[in-house]
Protein: Amino acid adenylation domain-containing protein
Amino acid sequence: MDLRPQASEVPGSGFDGRALDTIVSVFERVAAAKSDQVAIVWGEVRWTYGLLNARANELARRLQELGVRTDSFVAIYLDRSPEMIVAILGILKAGGAYLPIDFGYPKTRVLEMLEDARPVAIVTTAALALGVSGELTALSVSVVEMEGGSVTPNTGTLKSATPNSSEPNNPSCVARAEDLAYLMYTSGSTGKPKGVMVTHRNVLRLLEQTDAWFHFGANDVWTMFHSIAFDFSVWEIWGPLLTGGRLVIVPFAVSRSPREFYELLSRERVTVLNQTPSAFFMLMQVEIQVEQDSAVLPLSLRVVIFGGEALQYRKLAPWFQRHGDTAPRLVNMYGITETTVHVTYRPISAGEAESVQESLIGVPIPDMQLYLLDEAKRPVQEGELGELYVGGGGVTRGYLNRPQLNAERFIDDCFGSVAGARLYRTGDLARIRPDGEMVYLGRNDSQVKINGFRIELGEVEAALAETPGVKQSCVVALTDKTGTQRLAAYFVAAPGIEVTARMLGEFFVSKMPAQMRPSSYTALKELPLTVNGKLDVAALPAPSVGSAGVIEAGSNSQSLSETEERVSRVFTDVLDLQGIGLDDNFFDSGGTSLLLISAHLRLQAQFERLIPITVMFECPTVRSLAKRLSTNGTSASEKDAIQQQAQKARGAFARARATKGVAS
Structure:
């Protein structure tokens, strides 16, 4: 099966890469050639390439004065905004590597990353810096405050975004292709996150090697949909900014409202969309609603790229029935942070959505190699199960401060002819079909993927074991009826100490990022063991309720109002629970923002009205949401008011997210 693109497929390449280039040198050429063209869109704000470059130059000089040099780290602790992009570019122009920190991470997680990386500086806002000021001082981390980083997208203006003194002259080039561009943390099995070191060359060759397939260029409009701490964002940011395209920054609240995101895709005429399968399936549901509403919201997509999760082809059938498979093209790309975002390419046809049952990941990017090996590191035969090893230009420098782990995961390439080449041992399992297609089969260790984030169960278990009053514990990944993986925690309390699910949930809110918190906490008298003394996972009971604990006494259908009963049914169905209390928090009961989107869509259909997504976050319990739904009007004239209210609330919600710890 030949998946190589034909020369006639798409006109004109937009990527202009050269042997000694860095991300900075390519961007500066684009900025010089397209100075007056729009580079960034954020609500009503439009920044040109010239303005973006000038702001980045200004920051770069400030950072160099603070001592930022080649391979030194500078943390970015900001909400999504043009200032975030300025921070990334400014750090790279100064010669440093950026360390992205999601501003919704709990303080404990932020400090773990800062203590490991020891950055020279942190680019943030005054409000966010205040929460870790003492620790920053102790670590000798300089604070660079970005003005405007927390304003809402619709209140900023081009005038207010203009620097006081324009810096059109680029700083002298400091970094080289082999120097670090960013340090991105992933979950670690030892209980501590591990930082992956990625170079400029790693990123540039990704765009260069995939150009023959995609031909990204100045006519493309991309969205920055994902967190800066998720490596999909690397592809989303540099795809447009290194090819002269336009980058639309998606506010977090909009990214969690499929209807509003769909409207953004239509309004901004987005041509390149990158999504995890979970998020795209939500978007497909919204499109059906849009058609039912007879709304005119045409899409301009030419390609949709999937990553972050295993893709079930059959779920795409409804999309292909409406759009066909050429406009847009749908492409599945398997990849890992340690091998620079993407490793393979697999276009999907409409017929395959009807016939393919497996997750096919396609062929390697031209400068990458895939090996399927057994436990002795020998190639497996056709149809046999093997572990994926990845070699080639995307293999990163390795983990920061983890020599032993580097020796285990980044091994010598005994199959290639390039001296010093390495293979990355992925821990992913696959097999090759008779027709040569590679089928992804999941993990061979305790690592799982939750909403696109790789999670080491060992890290979550280590946190659970540290909880006061917990004598024994374990964490497993369970698959619910929708096929979604969730973390389930089981614990044995120490004698004489009361430990409740609610207490554990509150502990994890302060300890772990939202995607790493268990969706349920089940108390046991003892952990079940096999005859060999190992944990008997099969003998663990199914979790019955979420982390908020048992259902309140008397909380049955007789004691609920009609609205409460309807809300409760939706919550329990989406969360896959036997029941939920009136005052149990949706997120404490296993909910994520993606699951809340599903509940949001169902509630809108049930109540036949528009419900602002912000209401769902503001009222996360059955009682509070039912009360809000009972008091809000439902007339057609009020729908516009509701939408306007939601628009105004986005900025406030995005700022509040940092303290609420909403899972992605």
Summary: The longest strand covers residues 422-432. The chain has a mean pLDDT of 84. The first helix runs from residue 23 to 33.
